[in-house]
Sequence to fold (410 residues):
Amino acid sequence: MVRHIASLLLTSIALPAADSVQDRIMTVTNTPGLVAFWDFTKREAPGKRFTAHVPAGATNDYALDAGNYVKDLWNAGPAATYDDFPLLGSGPFGQAIRIKAETNPDFRPLLYVPRARLHDSPLDIKGAGKAVTIVVWAIRESGNHALAGIWHEGTDLKEKTTETIAKVERGQRQYALFAGLNKEGAACGHVSENGASSFTNKYALHKCNSAAQSPKVPHDAPPEVLAKSWQTFAMTFDSKTQQLTGWLDGQSGDRWLDNPQKDKLLSFAANAWLQGRLAKIPGQQEGEDPKFPADQYYNPPEDKAVSVKVLSEKDNTRVELREYAYTKVKVTLVAGQETSRELVSLRLNPWWYPHDLYQPKNDGTGGPFTIGRVIHSSRSVGFTGWIGGVAVFDRALTAEELAKFHALAK
Fold:
């Protein structure tokens, strides 16, 4: 059935002329900061592994292996091969792979560069002052999980699925791009400073969400529909501005989360904001947790308000809503003196990230670079759909550059 659909697509869609495809590829490869670009046409040899376009003089072309991480870590399920990634025969760069909604819970295939072949290479973006951009050209059929990146969640988390784990490993997260997570269909950038968890939650929670969200498009939609359905997911982390930003189709947009204390996961970030604020006040404060780790406080700069709105004023008591760059805070003042602060909203795009990217040693605590899925303990199906290109850069691309990349998908 898949081969039949691919055949129909090949005969029904006017593929871009060779020079047009090559021009599109060159637009990506000529962009400064390129580390690797998989277009799913470049291979070691016909019928062999996909490899990446890399800068001149690079010694690693990051050939992609096919694997089933459930088999590797749970010792269950079949092995994966390239046959598990059907080809579309079309796409922004002439080809695309399909990530399917696998029905076997022991089968979660992905394409990957093993850690041993990427450690300390340009793809291993980590440490002080390092920035990163991931761009993925995709058609989303369903799901909100990973598209590409170095993101081994760890199999030491207490989940029902880890009760039968054969190989327990700590988190090995660095950077990755997801199809939304808490905001399904958004472009969600995810980064980690420690490979593991954030704000005392078991999950990593430093993530952003683009304002726009991608629609669902069936993988077997009519050829003319698929041809117009390519979207450009991207994430940028700028170490200079400490901003993590999600971009969909070249646009980022503002996204805020009101009442973060009520969110299942980001309530932990709200508490990290509270604990960091209380720790600055001499003495033990009501609600303060003296055991909260200081390196997990979350206190974006609040030295200069973007706007101030008076919510109420009576006698000598004044209540203001102050919007800062990454937070909105309700402040109560009595006789001009601040008496309380309450977090009203957290900015999800861009997200403030004041850390370096996790820097694993060459001791088994670094993860692979994966496409289509990442290693995670819950073993959900994740993103499904078509992926027509994956590019990684060692700097934060600009809005103009990302808009130019989206134009390649039109």
